[in-house]
Design a protein that fits this description.
This protein is an alpha+beta fold. It is 35% helix and 28% strand. It is built from 11 helices and 10 strands. The chain is globular.
């Protein structure tokens, strides 16, 4: 497995803050040459699966976000997960719970007919259970990302690389489809490449991208294997919390460095989180000590993640 040195980790942290930051700026802030940053970026792409992807923020882009849980027989679960991964409306897919459960994150237009939820799940005897849970509010995750990959820079470097938001941002339109498709393939695609994909001029691309980024309508996520940062154990946590205390508990969980996602959801479990820990013992300590100290959590279901079949926007 690839090992990361201090410069690698600093480059990853910089891209975590701003996925489209120029290599010249990253080099200036880190105190290394532009060529060093470019070389490290290429190596991380080739050897560590590093990707920058441009994605619409569901809440700002007028989309509904769901988590669909499918229980299937072990010998068909992987094939079903691969089939779902080929759909454009699935954002990420994980095999959990011994390989018999598939958890699918689905983005649909707010006025959608919910084709995947209502019609398109394959009708097969191998699927033994289906449940769909709408994410009502993200407390953490998405544009903020997992903090475990973002601990290499000091406060001054973070401030220098963090983009400044200006204004509410512009809503997405149907004209943005080609731009989003190109950014999902490569969030660092140059203006000339994006112009070719959209049929716009580079200046128009630059203006539109700035408008969409201004208020977070489009954000840039970073994909890289969390095991490179010592997180070998992942789990989805489904919690039932007393409604009057849900907001307080969720905001507390959003400060936990072990978590990459915290969201309020519909269903018997009204709070879902994703945990990344060094090993099973560390996950146990987190569940019993950190979560165990929150008496408002009435029930907790832990679903270990065995494999990520699809990461954000991968095709």
């Amino acid at each position: 497995m690839t090992t990361l040195d201090a410069v690698d980790r600093a480059v990853v942290h910089a891209l975590h803050l701003d996925g489209r930051a120029p290599f010249t700026k990253i080099g200036d802030v880190l105190g290394v040459s532009t060529q060093t940053v470019a070389r490290r970026y290429r190596r991380l792409r080739e050897e560590a699966g590093l990707r920058v992807v441009g994605l619409p923020d569901p809440q700002r882009a007028g989309q509904a976000e769901w988590m669909v849980r499918l229980t299937a027989t072990p010998h068909t679960a992987q094939d079903l997960a691969q089939a779902l991964a080929r759909r454009a409306d699935t954002a990420w897919i994980k095999l959990t719970s011994g390989g018999t459960e598939i958890c699918v994150n689905v983005h649909t237009p707010a006025a959608s007919d919910h084709a995947l939820l209502l019609r398109d799940i394959p009708r097969t005897a191998s699927i033994t259970a289906v449940s769909a849970h709408q994410l009502l509010h993200r407390y953490f995750g998405g544009p903020t990302g997992w903090r475990g990959r973002a601990n290499a820079l000091d406060a001054a470097q973070i401030a220098a690389l963090t983009p400044v938001r200006s204004g509410p941002g512009k809503p997405l339109t149907s004209d943005d489809s080609a731009l989003l498709t190109a950014l999902q393939r490569d969030g660092r695609a140059g203006l000339a490449e994006l112009a070719a994909a959209t049929g716009w001029s580079p200046a128009t691309v630059a203006r539109r991208l700035a408008d969409l980024q201004a208020g977070g309508t489009v954000f840039f996520d970073l994909e890289i294997d969390p095991e490179l940062f010592g997180a070998t154990t992942q789990a989805l946590l489904w919690m039932a919390v007393a409604p009057a205390r849900l907001d307080r508990v969720a905001r507390t969980l959003a400060t936990h460095p072990e978590l990459a996602l915290v969201a309020a959801t519909t269903g018997p479990a009204n709070l879902v989180a994703q945990a990344l820990c060094p090993d099973a013992a560390a996950l146990h300590r987190y569940l019993t000590q950190r979560l165990g100290a929150l008496d408002a959590i009435r029930t907790l279901e832990t679903a270990p993640v065995l494999r990520t079949v699809k990461a954000a926007a991968s095709r």
